[in-house]
Amino acid sequence: MSQQSSKNPVINLQAVKVIYKYEMLRAWETLLQSFASPVISTALYFVVFGSAIGSRIQTIEGVPYGTFIVPGLMMLALLTQSIANASFGIFFPKFTGTIYEVMSAPISFVEILIGYVGAAATKSFIIGIIILITAGFFVELDIAHPVWMMSFLILTCITFSLFGFIIGLWADNFEKLQLIPMLVITPLVFLGGSFYSVSMLPPAWQTVTLFNPVVYLISGFRWSFFEVADVSVGLSLAMILLFLAACLLIVWWMFKTGYRLRQ
Amino acid sequence: MQNIVSISDLSKTYSSGHQALKSMSLDINRGEILALLGPNGAGKTTLISIICGIVNPSTGAVKVDGHDIVTEFRTTRSMIGLVPQELTLGAFDKVINTLRFSRGLFGKKADEGYLEQLLKKLSLWDKRNSEILALSGGMKRRVLIGKALAHEPKVLFLDEPTAGVDVELRKDMWTLVRDLRESGVTIILTTHYIEEAEEIADRVGVINNGELLLVDDKQNIMHMLGKKQMIIELKQTINEVPETLSAWALQLSSDGSQLTYTYDPYEQRTGITGLLDAVRDSGLSLQDVNTSQSSLEDIFVSLVKEKS
């Protein structure tokens, strides 16, 4: 049989490549579901919130309402899509049993993570960009800090894909797979200022809202567009990095202990 | 180095408290076909799963080609191919894509020529662009074998390879296994059929209740395990075995109507003809004669007894 190319490589790049490719292929093969449906639902939000309701609200902190909701809409799609993609990507092989091959391969959790989470984050990123372009057809958009915008976009994609990956590892049935996105994420995003400014709430609710991590995400992201924010941009960045670190820690622990993967 | 896989004091207790392996030690020779024989739940799959990295061992160590499976897992796992018992495949994947995936996953650069040759050997080349969903059970099993061989492993584990496989495919599989051995691959397969172990293996290890009862060359094992019994039903009842038949160490049934002779069918001389002649000469008349192969169950019971 052929020779071993290198005896003990630090990272198995071939494996990262095939996992990433496999996951991306899954998206292309279900193109309509993967990319078209988030665009359609975003367009619907624009029609309902932007045009129908927005025509009565006019501006929030000097930004036309239709434009104001763009960052929130993007976040809504990014969070739900990242979680859905990443959780399904790892849950399904577990469900069908094909995970045996990944577990018996000469790879560590680093390759698995880069492959699966990388692909899920890429898909979310593409969806985010598509939504941004779609929004450009409905409203006038000027992005004040494009670099910050991109950074927030990429960080959110990675962080929530990681979070989805954790859910996929944790879930041992389809119900659990849907549980957190439906019962936790969707409410947090809707209550996190996607469609309004936190300052529009009564003072007591403003305080409650500060416990919602999504507020920081949307606020920071919105600042990169309009320089309008509910909390300071530094705090937003710190919160997202904190969440990223927490997710990494959990994933590391899960692989270390073989959690629901390796007995 | 003679051994390709070296297992020492390996044990596994699952979190449920079930002890699947009890301090097992086993050396697997380079280039051999080893059959692990044992009933369901004996610990065969657990043993394989540990070596392949799917299950963590509780205690003990395994070396593959001199490398530890935990500290040097990248090296050991890239040498191993596994064909699992269940037909676990992504339903919507194309055959060729799933093989490419397997090859890459195990760190090998793409090699379309090798995969073509492999698919042809498995009679799957025509189906390379089919979705796995559309394949028959036998073809799916061949796809699993293809995936396990996609990275050119040195050691191949086949977990119950003939479960749900028809005669034709089984023959093809054994041909493939022999070809692989010719090319230098070490093959370990599990089975609960003695006949299967006999047909294909060089050596046989017998496992029961998480213990390796014995491991030996096939010939020796077959002598030990392959005992047959001949039951002679008499027309009359007798109180004791006649003196003239003492050489055959017969057992008389409690009602005195049956004589049981245990013999080794692999011996040149089984003693059957002589026994029947002697029975006739002693004046006993026969009602019926039948023979039976000792079942795997009997064998385990007797092996366990012998050990204790």
Short synopsis of the structure:
The complex is a heterodimer of chains A (263) and B (308). Helices cover 75% and strands 2% of the residues of chain A. With 263 residues, chain A is mostly helical.
What's the overall average pLDDT of chain A, rounded? 88
**Low-confidence spans of chain B:** none
Assembly state here? heterodimer
- The separation of the N and C termini of chain B measures 34 Å
The SS-based structural class of chain B is: alpha/beta
Structure description:
The complex is a heterodimer of chains A (263) and B (308). Chain A is mainly α and 263 residues long. Chain A has 11 helices and 2 strands; from the N terminus they run ααββααααααααα. Chain A has helices at residues 13-29, 31-57, 65-68, 70-96, 99-103, 109-138, 146-170, 174-190, 203-209, 213-226, 233-257; strands spanning 59-60, 63-64. Chain A has a two-stranded antiparallel sheet. In chain A, helix 4 packs antiparallel against helix 8 and helix 6 crosses helix 7 (146-170). Chain B is an alpha/beta fold and 308 residues long. Chain B folds into 2 domains: 3-224, 3-Layer(aba) Sandwich (Rossmann fold); 227-296, 2-Layer Sandwich (Alpha-Beta Plaits). Chain B is built from 10 helices and 14 strands. Chain B has helices at residues 44-52, 73-79, 95-105, 112-121, 137-149, 167-182, 194-200, 218-225, 272-281, 296-307, and strands spanning 3-13, 19-29, 33-37, 59-64, 67-68, 80-83, 155-158, 186-191, 203-208, 211-217, 228-234, 251-252, 258-263, 286-293. In chain B, a hairpin with a 2-residue loop joins strand 9 (203-208) and strand 10. In chain B, helix 3 (95-105) runs parallel beside helix 5. Chain B starts with a strand and ends with a helix. The chains are: A mainly alpha (263), B alpha/beta (308). The interface between A and B is large, with 32 and 41 residues.
